[in-house]
Each structure stands twice: as C-alpha cells, then as structure tokens.
Amino acid sequence: MGEIDEELRNIEKLMRKTRYNPQGYGLVLAAVEDAIERSGVRGHISGRELLESVVRLLVQKHGLLASLVLTRWGVTSSEDIGRMVFDLVEAGLLTKRDEDSIQDFEGYDIISEIERRSLQPPVLDLKRLLGGDRPCPDKEEKNA
Asked: How far is residue 30 from each of residues 50, 86, 88, 131, measured CA to CA in Å?
C-alpha cells in the first residue's frame, strides 16, 4: 500500500507544478500503451513512436478539433510531449533508459501532423465491409 500512496503523492505534486492539463498526461500514458501494443513487444519505445501514437489517438478521438484540444491542454510542440514524459518518469509512472533525453522529442511538428492526418479521408477496409473473403458480386456474374 505504501508504494501506491507514494505514487499518488508524486502525481499530486506533479499536478500542482505543471502547466499542462492533467488530461494531457492521461493521453501520454494511453499513447505509451498504444505504441507498445502496436510494436508487439513489451519494453522501450522511441520518442518518435510515442509522438505518432499521440497523434493517432488525438485524431481518433477528436478529429478536426484534435490540434485545438492539444493546445488547450498547453501542448504546442513535440517537446511539450517530451517534458510530460519526463514529468511522468519523475512521478514514477514511466521509466526511461540512461540514454533517453528530451531531445528525442525534438523536430516533430506535432500540430501540422495532427492537422494533416485529421484532414485525410478515412481509408475504408473494403474486405471487412464486404464480409471477408467473399468474391465480389460482379465477378460471380461474369464467371457464370
């Protein structure tokens, strides 16, 4: 029980000192899980993998409003995501390797990437929409 109490104290301390909305930290934690799930390997993920998961989750949940939501949470750059990651490491909710640094999050234009992805038309999974591996009706008629 002491470990959980310590974690809660660290989270409370983090929330008092941060300029970011708590929902942003929840997004980062969800993005870590998403990136790990997508990689198929439990363990370390790169800053880039995490940023791509952040973008994916934001666009999935908020669509065209994703960049607005992110900026309302106080996040305007990929470096802000990096700071949040290191805040979560300090709070004991994430771990890092010695070689991990805030620079791992530099140079990714997160706002532009969110806007680009939120404006892309959705890709339809035609195989799923048609019910699996069933042949197209047009092809059946031509073969008959």
From this structure: 10, 15, 12, 31
